Amino acid sequence: MSPRKARKLSLKRRLLLTLLPPLCCILLALGLSGAWLVKRIVEDASDRVLSGSLQAVSETLEMQEGYLTMDLPPSALGMLENPDRDAIYYSVTYRGKLITGYPELAVHQPVQPRIEGIRFSNSVFHGEPIRIASEARLVPQLDAPVIVQVAETVKNRTALVQRMLIALAIGETILLVTVIGLVMLAVDWGLRPLALLRREVEARNDEAEIDFAPLPLSSVPQEVLPFVSAFNTLLDHVDRSFQTLRRFTSDASHQLRVPLAVVRAHVELLRRDGHGSPEMRDALTDIHQAVRALQHLIVQLISLAKAERPNGDEADAGSFDAVECTAAAARTYAVRALEKGMELSFEADCEMLMLAGNAIFVGEMIGNLLDNAVLYGNAGGQIVVRVDSRAGTVEVEDDGPGIPEGARERVFERFYRLPRNGDREGSGLGLSIVRALGRRMGATVSLETPAGGHGVKAVVRFPLPPSGSAAARLAPAPQKLGADEAVQAR
Amino acid sequence: MRLLIVEDDAALARGILKVFRAEGLAVDHVSDGEEALEIIQMEPYNAVVLDLGLPDMDGLTVLKQIRRANISVPVLILTARDATADRINGLNQGADDYLCKPFAIEELEARVRALIRRGLGNPDPLLKLGTLELDRATGACYLAGRLLELTPRERAVLETLAARAHSVVPKARLSAEVFGYDDAVAPNALEVHMGRLRRKLEGGDIEIITVRGLGYLLRLA
Ligand SMILES: Nc1ncnc2c1ncn2[C@@H]1O[C@H](COP(=O)(O)OP(=O)(O)O)[C@@H](O)[C@H]1O
Ligand SMILES: [Mg+2]
User: Where is this region: Disordered (chain A) (predicted)?
Assistant: First the structure.
């Protein structure tokens, strides 16, 4: 399934898709029956008033001295005849002859008026729809019923129906919107624990040091619990296979050492014997070089595996003197630098700088940086190693070709080497090791451009102990450094 | 000179044997810990090369038992394991030196030779570098066959540097060797001696190099 499709089927969508159609049907049914009911109620109520008027009229029909008399009480129709009420019409007929009222209304007589009962009918009067109530009344001494009709226009009742329908519609709309809003809110609220989980997982996504500890189950909703548990199980599996892989690298590298030692010993012996044709000796030289490169690679692999082991074993405890560690590494590499015609110098702004960490690890870090400076720096160039106690940094600076800005992060990747160095000795693991070891101690490693404008300045920044703690730094003895400075000539 | 190699890898053992036999040493070889313990207690070896990964027991156990039996033969440990923890362990258990596999043959040779010398108690009195010859016993010093007139301090400087030729000797250590710890020394006293010594070495095939901030190094020019 494409990701876009997957997004379409979001939880909210799903919920709304399942909720909305039935909800709409219910609302529609409710609306229809409501409308019908409203109409009925309004009609009944209005009809009752209309029939009241009709009866008030018809009850006054009487025969007096041979005449049919009718007393039209003003209240009977008057209560209907106010300006904002509907117009009222009436008619009284006997044997089809209009006795009083509106002749046009008499036309609308029902074919078969009910005796002693009221009939209602709809019609049009003067172009307006009207409601007519008719009654056939038997008056003593008359052989045929007198038909009495009262009608009113329906404006009022239509308006009433309309108002009620609008109220109904508004009510239904409010209900619909509320339901949608509640669904959204409920989904968001229900998903909040998941968002928290996501943040938790994202926070661990530091590519270098992935945290495989199980996710906390405390705030996870019941429904998601199985999923998170399964995810934790997966994490555990991944963690274990990760460890296995690391151990494998380390074990395999160790296992490789013995056969490599055999090859190296015998190749060196053969070379020393000096037997064989020149081609054979060349081949031996090649083999010897390859064996040394292989050895370097294996040693670096072991270093890296060691550096990337999870933190917290005894190797991480302890403290070291940054000045001594760095000076020791610099002394070792000074010899190689001299062989290459480079000048290596060491500067420290203090005699001792005690920091938390493992001295062997630090030696390895500085050694790898020095290895690069010697290997990639210019023959005849300068290498400066610096300990800055105020900043808590150790710097290794060369004036070689440098590393292009864009590649300064990539060179920390395993096995990555600048294209121009592809054929030189080296494994591409050095800086990865430096960074991994640094991370164990909370130190950061960065590559910068030296003040001179060319070359590389590798800076290792160690976390400084809180300034209040027992003074870890020994101030320099100024005369001594001065004297050192004085011995420039060789 | 008798040397014992304790190494379970036959091919590697053959190589090592070849090296030291070529040097004229009497070399024995055993491939497990039991055998090693037995033979070490019987024969007077001048040095032992001990592999840590033995089939029957850990090399460190062998070492511990040797020391417990009060045998002080110099021991060089060989290991395929990782340096850091093992090195400290090994040296604590009474090993004299330590080498990681794979190693350069020259390195092994040099270290074993040094061990044997140390065991004999008389370090080689003659120091040589290029045409420099320094007799520690008599104090005589020759450069290209010509006798060098050196003050005792200059000789001490040269001797200390020559004993660790091609490596950087920290200034503090040099001062300690030359002046002793107690002498009150002018801050630039060492530089004064160094300057004179350099002048006397001029024209020869060796030179003293200042590694700024770190110390001095003697090397072939
Ligand atoms: N001081 C430096 N000057 C120039 N290029 C460097 C320097 N240090 C590292 N590099 C480049 O970064 C790459 C990676 O370095 P590193 O991780 O130490 O591996 P390796 O040195 O084994 O190749 C090197 O191959 C080189 O191209
Ligand atoms: Mg490197």
Answer: 469-490
